[in-house]
């Protein structure tokens, strides 16, 4: 298969540069791809600030994400359990897509445009049905920043009603941080998506005999968590409301997250796709490690608050019994303890 590519640079004089996928021009032959480009030239205005090195050309299909089919028509890419760095180029979270009879829905698309491009290719190797919806489970860059490519391809971007403001407030900081972590070249072309459909409670969409139910949750992992339930297979995309092996990261309210987790545990679902870790978890068994950690985090934090322990000391003590049970513990537990302490101190 051939696809349309254009090389874009931050500066034509000294780069960095990266080949960018132009979605929607895929064809079985290079000639057919070139005809599509000629008939419908791409709108490059979405790449504000980048300079084109030459014109769009058709090339063999590039890098494609690995996918696991966790249920019929439900595919998941498993990101690395690592902090973003130059080696992993930001591929550190789970994402996926669901194929219906008439269209496809994407759920999250990683932290950079190149990941969204590789996810697009993974879809195109399995179906030529249009991607009608791109669903963002929450504001964090490792889930949200690769989604804009699907908007360019005509998908409606769906998110929690609180997502647009959260992304607007944080996009600049996210992009600055990721540039230092994964490098400017890997991040070229990346921008926050614009939300077309904001979910305040529940929303159902149909991919063609494939209904998906989206649920907006109260403040938990973040203030804009959204889940996706494929009732056809009982598969539930939880975003970062559920972590596996990767220590949970608290950026909302601890008590709210525990309440939401209890609600999730009561749902009649077959499997959950966590935001990090395994491609899918049996349910509710897969929730037990996280429920235990959040319980310990709350118990230890309350004990520190009641004992009058100073925050700096408490952060070094809270939830230390969980250290050996999670990856990235030292990167996230101090942050979790700080957020939890601040919340419970003022209850």
TrEMBL record:
InterPro entries: Metallo-B-lactamas, NDM-1-like, RibonucZ/Hydroxyglut_hydro, SoxH-rel_PQQ_2. Gene3D superfamilies: Ribonuclease Z/Hydroxyacylglutathione hydrolase-like (3.60.15.10). Transmembrane segments: none annotated. It comes from the Bacteria. GO terms for biological process: antibiotic catabolic process. Residues 92-276 form the Metallo-beta-lactamase domain. Pfam families: Lactamase_B. Belongs to the metallo-beta-lactamase superfamily. Class-B beta-lactamase family. PANTHER family: ACYL-COENZYME A THIOESTERASE MBLAC2, METALLO-BETA-LACTAMASE DOMAIN-CONTAINING. This is Metallo-beta-lactamase domain-containing protein. It comes from Roseobacter denitrificans (strain ATCC 33942 / OCh 114) (Erythrobacter sp. (strain OCh 114)).
